[in-house]
Amino acid sequence: MTVASRPARARTGLARAVLGRAGGYLAVLAVAVTVTFALPRALPGGPLRTLGGTDVGQLDATTRAQVVAAYGLDQPLHVQFASYLRDLARLDLGESFNGGRPVIEAIGAALPWTLLLVGASVLLTAAVGVLLGVLAGLRRDRGKGNLLLAGVLLLDAAPAFWLGMLCILFFGVHLGALPTFGVTSPGHTGLAAVGDVATHLVLPVGVLVATGIGQFFLVTRFSIASALHAPHVEHAHARGIPQRRVVTRHLLRPALLPVHTQLMMELGWLVGGALVVETVFAYPGLGRLTFDAIGGRDYPTMQGTFLTLTVTVLVMNALADLTYPLLDPRVRGRGRS
């Protein structure tokens, strides 16, 4: 094989890899669209109470049939699914059964609050988890490292709703130090409003961080512990390089490679995991919107929020695939060979 043909072959291999990944993501998206349509209809009960009002029990059979027919729910499932796909192709998520508000408008109002909550949480989760993981990895043979491991695993096993209720009772009810619901208080403007939002974020962000640092901690601890006796690290110690420089130059960078992938996966997971936390703290985000939609069997809103969560996870995974070669020279080297 000539030297000139190697770049062409490399480009062909890269194109095939990209097309394969794109095909995989499209297949997952197709399954997700099907599941988001089927899952709301698989739940017990139905949207009749939301559509007909609280006095739905007093409606006769004819009126109930008219209400169901008005929203196309009397059609066979395959007809409803075809209609759902047509609307989705036009980026039309339908209208909520509760008040007739466009679903895309409701998601657009809730999503920024969720992104604020998740963005702050994932940054703090990664920072705290990596820091504790480095400390535990360096002290893995000491009592402090094992004690840190036990504490993080205990927090990781704690249910988010239980920890949230404890925070409400202690910081909100007992101490009265922090707000326990919503995201704003009336009467605040300018910088005071920013501070008010930040204060409302303390408890929900704290719960997400406490229950989410476990994965970052374990991945970082394992990476640090595995690299401690690597040849290049022992060589650095033999050359008399200070311990702090060894950690930052020779241990931390390789340890951050799996942490990068975990960060992308955690971001997608936190968007879904925020559902519980937003419900506990009455936070007006995507999780609270999903919870209310499930309670009212609001099919269009459930479909829209489920699909938004799925697309978020897929986007995070795609970003992890695209950015990982930027951090790992070995991957770039394989791509050029």
**Helix and strand composition category:** mainly alpha
Distance between the termini: 13 Å
Spans of at least 5 consecutive residues with low confidence: none
For the report, how would you describe the main beta sheet?
A: none
**What is the N-to-C order of secondary-structure elements (H for helix, E for strand)?**
HHHHHHHHHHHHH
What is the C-alpha radius of gyration, as a whole number of Å?
A: 25 Å
Helix content: over 70%
The number of distinct β-strands equals 0
Shape: globular
Report the CATH C-level class of the domain at 109-336: Mainly Alpha
Brief synopsis:
It is built from 13 helices and no strands.
Account of the protein in words:
The chain is an all-alpha fold. The protein has a domain of 228 residues: MetI-like fold, CATH 1.10.3720. It has 13 helices and no strands. The longest helix is centred in the N-terminal third of the chain and has 38 residues. The mean pLDDT is 77.
How are the secondary structure elements laid out?
Layout: H1 5-42, H2 48-52, H3 61-70, H4 77-89, H5 103-138, H6 143-157, H7 160-174, H8 191-227, H9 231-238, H10 243-280, H11 286-295, H12 299-327, H13 329-336
List keywords for this structure.
mainly alpha; MetI-like fold; 0% strand; 337 residues; globular; single chain
